[in-house]
Amino acid sequence: MADPAAKFAVARSSAASAESPRGVKHAAGSPLRVLMVSTSYPTSLGDWRGLFIRHLADALARREDVSLSLWAPPGDVHPRVRRACTDDDDAWLLELVRRGGIAQLLRTAVVPGMAAGLGLVRRLRRVFARETADLYHINWLQNALALPADGRPALISVLGADMRLLAWPGMRLMMRRVCRGRRVAICPNADWMVAALESAFTGVARIRTVPFGIDPAWYSLARKFTQEREPNWLVVARITRDKIGDLFAWGSAAFAGGRKLHLLGPMVETLDLPDWVEYHGATTPAELREKWFPMAHGLITLSRHSEGRPQVMLEAMAAGLPIIASRLPAHENLIEHGDSGWIADSPEGLAAGLAQLESAPRNIAVGLKAQARVRADIGTWDDCAQRYDRVYRELTPVDT
After folding, report:
1. 222 & 206 share domain
2. Minimal CA–CA distance to 54: which of 66, 70, 67, 65?
3. Is residue 52 located within the same domain as residue 118?
4. Which of 19, 173, 302, 306 has its CA 20 to 30 A from that of 12?
5. Which residue range forms the structural domain that includes residue 121?
């Protein structure tokens, strides 16, 4: 079977040959024109898919020094965001979202996934050709493969799943080729990815960690936890084997008594759920804030997925909700075992974490430590937009 990275390369190089270089400076005193690209975007604030892109776009749009155009699936946008999609782009992106996105397609059906990837490259080439921008803000490495050879600077945000993509044969070479001839910042949303990215992009890109933000509403959530209540624990995730991880195997003994485990999220892969799991289907951020987080003892994630810095964990910590998490770099980078959360790498570790955090004083103290950490280190989406803007200014010289 043909190498997927090589297939992407053919689509990119054939379009790049017709591209002529353009200037890369912007006028002093004028808003920086940013073209943001994403293959995920929510239809509304009640939609979980790509909601962090919506929050980021809104925060950038609130800045007077940025003029933002957005190429992404259709959905509500801030009045100061200009959509860069054609009607045909909208229809194609909606179908891609319906099918689970390119990464999901490549995991489950390689040939359709490769076909979708090639279609994405062609569409992105067209949008880069018709849009005028001072800087490209590309979400995910796969979307950077379509960058034209026009010398314009690019900021490429990286999530945990991108690290798996970077391991494809030929992908590092392709990405290094994309970066040459322009200023590039590769921006993971967590520090644990930095070393591997520096190794992959030495000499062609700067690596800048840019954590995502948190909606201020999470910080003001009022918990209703009391020790007298029946323990209620939450799992909030897209339901796949990797996302569930060891939960069903380890949890059967831990949840055999009076504890309740509530599972919330869309069923992406069909899994048999144990009878001790109470499945409630997909949820929304508003429902989590108003119903589930206030009554919960904590959040559990035993994921084996390639996580970057899971947004639901940030929101739980901002709400003062303790977390029991598997031993992944993304989790250990975010919580300190026994202080601002609990790391479990065995059934005994899970049981110990549940016992520790069902003590009211311990639960509240750990939740407050978690909240203080994300408030200091991550803040809000406006803080995130400011972090990105600093990188934008590193990449874009001013024409005086």
Report:
1. no
2. 70
3. yes
4. 306
5. 4-213+381-399
Mean pLDDT of 75-98: 95
CA dihedral sign, ordered 388, 185, 142, 108: negative
How big is the chain, counted in residues?
400
**Terminal CA-to-CA distance of the chain, rounded, Å?**
52
- 155 and 34 share one domain: yes
Residues 283 and 368 in one domain: yes
| pLDDT greater than 70 at residue 212 | yes
Same domain, 170 and 224: no
Residue 249 and residue 314 in one domain: yes
Q: Mention every residue, 6+ apart, whose C-beta is less than 8 A from residue 399.
A: 25, 26, 27, 28
Give this prediction's pTM. Answer: 0.86
Which CATH number fits the domain that encloses residue 242?
Answer: 3.40.50.2000
pLDDT at 11 over 90: no
Q: Helix (H, G, I), strand (E, B), or coil: what is residue 229?
A: coil
Q: What is the mean pLDDT of residues 13-35?
A: 60
* The two three-digit tokens of residue 369, written as one number: 């430590």
pLDDT tens per residue, range 336-358: 999 999 999 999 999 999 999 99
260: Cα within 13 Å, side-chain hemisphere: 14
Spatial distance between the Cα atoms of 248 and 274, rounded to a whole number of angstroms: 7
**Do 244 and 134 reside in the same domain of the chain?**
no
Q: How confident is the model at residue 318 (pLDDT cuts 50, 70, 90)?
A: very high
Domain count for the chain, please give it: 2
Average pLDDT of the residues in 178-200? 95
Query: Which tops the pLDDT comparison, 28 or 327?
Result: 327
Classify 214 in phi/psi space as left (phi over 0), alpha (psi -120 to 50) or beta: beta
Share of the chain above pLDDT 90, in %: 73
DSSP reduced 3-state for 176: helix
Residue 18 pLDDT: 34
Share of the chain above pLDDT 70, in %: 90
Q: How far is residue 56 from each of residues 41, 63, 112, measured CA to CA in Å?
A: 11, 11, 30
Q: Is 170 left (phi over 0), alpha (psi -120 to 50) or beta?
A: left
Is 102 in the same domain as 198?
A: yes
